[in-house]
Design goal:
Layout: H1 18-29, E1 35-39, H2 46-54, H3 60-67, E2 80-84, H4 87-94
Antiparallel strand pairs: 1-2
Helix pairs in contact: 1-3, 2-3
């Protein structure tokens, strides 16, 4: 189940990532984005993981989209996060 199936509602419909989020989720479902799973530990945040694995903390929303966890940077310990194995698979979708 997706926590936020209508991302365009966030920020009054002004968030520019809603279409991209949909494309990322669809590509994941089709197996076009190879990922690995990380189980979050206490105090780990999506922006820190994005910096570590994608080289850019601003791409935290990519991890959220791949993992269907919503839009919070801080997730509870034990949350499963999907991380793309290579950034190029994301770049081809995000542009």
């Amino acid at each position: 189940m997706r926590r936020y199936t209508r991302d365009q509602r966030i920020a009054g419909g002004k968030l520019q990532t809603s279409k991209t989020t949909t494309r990322i989720r669809r590509a994941r479902e089709l197996g076009l984005i190879p990922t690995r799973e990380i189980t979050l530990k206490e105090s780990q945040r999506l922006d820190h993981l994005a910096q570590e694995h994608l080289g850019n903390s601003h791409l935290w929303w990519v991890l959220a989209a791949l993992s269907d966890v919503g839009w919070g940077l801080q997730m509870p310990a034990g949350t499963i996060i999907r991380v793309p194995l290579e950034i190029n698979s994301i770049r081809s979708i995000v542009g």
